[in-house]
Specification:
The complex is a heterodimer of chains A (374) and B (294). Chain A has 2 domains: 231 residues, P-loop containing nucleotide triphosphate hydrolases (Rossmann fold); 114 residues, Nucleic acid-binding proteins (OB fold (Dihydrolipoamide Acetyltransferase, E2P), Beta Barrel). Chain A has 10 helices and 21 strands. In chain A, helix 3 packs across helix 4 and helix 3 packs parallel to helix 5. Chain A is elongated. Chain B is 70% helix and 3% strand. Chain B has 13 helices and 2 strands; from the N terminus they run αββαααααααααααα. Classes of the chains: A alpha+beta (374), B mainly alpha (294).
């Protein structure tokens, strides 16, 4: 087990010229020993590349990978003592389940009786005990993926276990079960786990710390709550949450902000920063948009364009000027009619402000007008 | 209930006619010959299984069959491992891969009688590169005079001609293995041999099966190349089954025994292919012994 420090950039091209030539833009990151991490982002954002760099399958074109301070950049996966589980199940077809699980140990010359106990333990954890003597080739996809997981977990002295979207091929109900299993295993074995996924639910439930990535860049590292409440980058707001954060163009005008042609007074603590920014984006999660009476403070009049019953809430889409605003409204309240004008409160403790893609104001500042508590 | 539409038969008809004319009718003709004695174009006698009995007792045929079996097994024993080795050493990507593919496929493009001619000249002690080189080295080599030399020359020629087919099939099999397998093997700390034994070989099983069957059938029916190279000699050293059969049917006009033997020949190939196929199906897929008892 080890602390992993990254300070690197990577391009698959031999002569990268611009940012888009890089699979990973320069980044610095640390993974603490025994932590559970998730790398979250859409396809092609560089998360698998990052994982392969940590495991040693890919050598970064610039920078270094350190394990407990020792430079591992040029070392092989075996020397790094890393375990990795891939998106699609990799099993050795001609071997039995038990031999598959034992393979990483045998290759390292572990004593036979030690192998037997480890394989038995892992098989029990993953509920494979009944199939140990079967040939792996005949198993279903989810059982095969359990074998892959088992091979990743069978060594107890690994520096870290890396998962590359390991539950893609698994049925939804088993997904929950396996994810819970992984969490249990994490608590039990105290291994460093790094988990790549494009599924926010998977990332947020699995990991203590989530790294959100887009276009070769790690835009925010934080807990589930931090990512939800205070996205530091518009991509995070947009990517996390369902639906993602609303972004409404706004600008500073004569002591207040103007949103969709409507003036909203603002707390003085924010006024300076926002007046300096001039034009910016107001971000608010659909969960925090509430319906109010006409003319309420921090609220906008909007025209309802769509109302959907999602089962546990109304999903409202409404036009505020040029922007479509989404809100999750309580099912207990009556659904507004399509075409009607309603007032939605967009300014509150959960509002965020963005200049370009970056958050303008650090977390925790109350953005409402004077008089509201901070 | 579904409506029954008999019109579909018309769609099958062309294929049916093609197969009938290309396979079924010629085969039935052979069956016809095998049970009759054709004395002249308009005189024939039904002889039952007499030709079959005669062919079974034919000593010359027994030795030809034995020669043929030995040759085919030798072909498999050399070409399959060599083809795998060649495929493993071929570059996987880039222009080198294309160049290697073209180079390897070259011998497959040469007509069979030309292959025979090439080797006939190649092996000559006076003007052939191989023959002259061996003579210069002091090796007493003559494919026309020495039975072993002739047999080996035919084998080497076949290896030269057809190993590329095995290599190309294996190469295709190798390229279809997802990268994740190699990555997983690196993570698991597998040796180069373990990667071959547990990943590449099992994943090549399908194409290897095709390669083994093709090479077995083709080599078992080999005719043109030895015919051009050695004419079956010296003596009968390289007279394989096809050539023996042709001699009987065309040379001596013994249509009856030749037809009877053709059918036996066909059944032998079918049987051996069946055995090979089933054996290769079982290898590597059956549950390990003892598993069912636990």
């Amino acid at each position: 087990m080890a602390r992993i420090d990254l300070d690197l950039a990577h391009s698959y091209l031999s002569d990268p010229k611009q940012d888009s030539d890089y699979a990973l833009l320069p980044l610095q990151m640390s993974f603490v020993d025994g932590g559970a991490y998730a790398l979250l982002g859409p396809s092609g954002c560089g998360k698998t590349t990052l994982l392969n760099i940590i495991s040693g399958l890919v050598r970064p074109s610039q920078g270094a990978v350190r394990f407990d301070g020792a430079d591992m950049t040029a070392r092989s996966p075996q020397e790094r003592n890393i375990a990795q589980v891939f998106q699609f199940p990799v099993v050795y077809d001609t071997m039995t389940v038990a031999d598959n699980l034992a393979f990483p140990l045998r290759n390292r010359g572990v004593a036979p009786d030690r192998i037997k106990t480890r394989v038995g333990r892992i098989a029990e954890m993953l509920e494979l005990s009944g199939q140990l003597n079967q040939r792996a080739a005949h198993l279903a996809a989810d059982a095969k993926q359990k074998i892959s997981l088992g091979r990743g977990l069978v060594r107890e002295d690994v520096s870290a276990v890396l998962f590359d979207e390991p539950l893609t091929v698994i049925d939804p109900h088993l997904k929950w079960q396996l994810r819970r299993k992984l969490k249990e295993i994490h608590h039990e074995l105290k291994l460093t786990l790094i988990y790549v996924t494009h599924d926010q639910v998977e990332a947020l439930t699995f990991a203590d710390q989530v790294v959100v990535m887009t276009r070769g860049q790690a835009v925010q590292i934080g807990t589930a709550a931090e990512l939800f409440e205070r996205p530091r980058h518009r991509f995070v707001g947009h990517f996390i949450g369902s639906p993602g954060m609303n972004f409404i163009p706004a600008r500073w005008r004569e002591g207040a902000i103007e949103v969709a042609g409507h003036r909203l007074p603002i707390a003085p603590a924010l006024a300076e920063r926002l007046s300096a920014a001039g034009e910016f984006m107001l971000g608010i999660r659909p969960e925090y948009v509430t319906q109010t009476e006409a003319g309420a403070s921090g609220a906008l009049p909007v025209e309802v364009s769509q109302v959907q019953d999602i089962g546990t809430y109304w999903l409202l889409a409404a036009r505020a000027g040029e922007t479509v605003l989404r809100a999750r409204l309580n099912l207990a309240s009556a659904a507004p009619d399509v075409g009607a004008t309603v007032w939605l409160k967009v300014l509150g403790p959960h509002s965020c402000f963005y200049g370009g893609d970056q958050q303008l104001i650090a977390a925790g500042v109350e953005p409402e007008q004077p008089g509201a508590s901070a | 209930m579904k409506p029954i539409n008999q019109k579909a038969w018309w769609l099958v008809l062309p294929v049916f006619i093609c197969v009938a004319f290309s396979a079924v009718l010629p085969l039935m003709t052979v069956v016809n010959y095998s049970v009759q004695d054709i004395i002249s174009p308009d005189r024939r006698v039904f002889v039952g299984t007499e030709w079959f009995a005669a062919v079974m007792r034919d000593e010359e045929l027994h030795s030809a069959l034995w020669r043929q079996l030995t040759f085919s097994l030798a072909v498999l024993a050399v070409e399959i491992p060599l083809g795998i080795a060649l495929a493993l050493s071929m570059p996987a990507r880039g222009w080198q891969a294309s160049a290697a593919l073209v180079l390897v496929a070259l011998s497959l493009l040469i007509p069979w009688n030309v292959v025979g001619t090439i080797w006939q000249i190649y092996g000559r002690a006076d003007i052939g590169l191989l023959g002259a080189a061996l003579a210069w080295l002091g090796v007493d080599y003559s494919y026309t005079g020495d039975a072993t030399d002739a047999w080996i020359t035919v084998l080497v020629m076949d290896v030269w001609h057809w190993t590329p087919l095995v290599a190309l099939l294996c190469y295709a099999g190798l390229r279809s293995i997802p990268d994740a397998y190699y990555q997983a093997a690196r993570i698991d700390g597998a040796s180069r041999f373990a990667v071959f034994r547990y990943i590449q070989l099992p994943k090549m099983r399908g194409v290897l099966m095709i390669a083994v069957l093709l090479r077995f059938m083709d080599s078992f029916m080999i005719y043109t190349e030895p015919f051009v190279l050695t004419g079956g000699g010296p003596g009968n050293a390289t007279t394989f089954l096809s050539q023996y059969l042709t001699q009987k049917a065309v040379g001596q006009f013994d249509l009856g025994p030749a037809a009877a033997f053709s059918l036996i020949y066909f059944l032998i190939i079918l049987l051996l292919c069946f055995i090979l196929y089933n054996w290769m199906q079982r290898v590597g897929t059956a549950d390990p012994e003892g598993a069912s008892h636990e």
